[in-house]
Amino acid sequence: MQEPEEKKIALELLETEQAYVNRLHLLDQIFYTELMKEAKNGKTVPEEVVKMIFSNISSIYQFHAKFFLPELQKRMEDWSCNPRIGDVIQKLAPFLKMYGEYVKNFDKAVELITVWSEKSPPFQELIADIQKRKVCANLTLQHHMLEPVQRIPRYELLLKDYIRKLPPESPDREDAEKALEMIFMVAKHSNAAIAEMERLQNLWAVYQRLGLENDIIDPSNELIKEGPIQKISTRTSSTSEKYLFLFNNMLLYCVPKVIQVGAEFQVHLRIDVDGMKVRELKDTQFPHTFLVSGKQRTLELQAR
To answer: Which residues pair with 253 in a beta bridge?
Structure first.
């Protein structure tokens, strides 16, 4: 008798989970543990750096090794009398939210490895030494660290496949579909965490260019557009280079600094979006001009 298609996929899930737990063991029990031991002896890098590189890998490893893999193994052994995996994955799905932290930290972790490998030869040597071992299969630490980032999308694909192969009347259909929905939500949660982190990093970079003026720093702000603009002086019929930052709640009218120590721009005027008016002008001498008026002042500007 040939194995049913859905069982083949369930077995593939089990096999890839076994290989994945081995990879997590390598990251947590070998790389992290050994690098931490050397850091504690003060021989390589500060302990904090090692913790920052590996984020919450220990929790992820414990969860897969002690809970999810054993549950899957048990289920596959009982397949003949209980052919289903949807309920097991439903139990697992909420815990996958902890991947958000790891995924969010991934780019920073890779950067830290590069920076500290240059700063600390003993740190670089220890990593190189572990990478030479058979268990690393000629792959770098960074390569192994990518595995958890790719694991949730892998569950999603396998589960979609599994559902496609299920007979219409299968008792596992409802559970499997619900499990897929939960995993999809987790993936979305993880992507949202990354997007939010990127937004905050970009926002902070903009605030630094503006000289960190207290009254404009607000983490809920959203930068919509920025760029150079010409300010038209009606008095002298000339233009001068200025710079605009448009946020969701305010427009900052800035002057580029000649000597850039710290900040790149000086904020000359802040116009609240609430109550701001913008009107296009038909000016033959200055094309692409418009008026921006706020409560305090009106600016005549020319775009490229």
So the answer is: 244, 269
In 141-286, DSSP assigns E strands to 223-233, 238-247, 250-256, 265-272, 277-281
30/129 Cα distance (integer angstroms): 11
- 201, 158, 215: which is closest to 183 by C-alpha? 158
Q: Do 76 and 143 lie in a common domain?
A: yes
241 exposure class (CB count in 10 Å sphere: 0-12, 13-18, 19+): exposed
Q: Give yes or no: residues 98 and 145 share one domain.
A: yes
Rounded to an integer, what distance in angstroms lies between the CA atom of residue 150 and that of residue 11? 19
Q: In angstroms, rounded to a whole number, what is the distance separating the alpha carbons of residues 183 and 13? A: 14
Residues in the chain: 304
Q: What angle do CA 224, 229, 233 make, to 5 degrees?
A: 135
Going by the DSSP 8-state scheme, the letter that residue 68 receives in this structure is: I
Domain range holding 138?
5-189
Give the total number of structural domains in the chain.
Answer: 2
Are 157 and 39 found together in one domain?
yes
Is 263's pLDDT higher than 80? no
Angle among Cα 73, 185, 147 to the nearest 5 degrees reads: 55
pLDDT in tens, 109-143: 999 999 999 999 999 999 999 999 999 999 999 99
Residue 125, token pair as written in the block: 């040597």
Residue 267 resides in a domain: yes
Neighbours of 159 (CB within 10 A): 24
Give residue for tokens 């599994």. Answer: 162
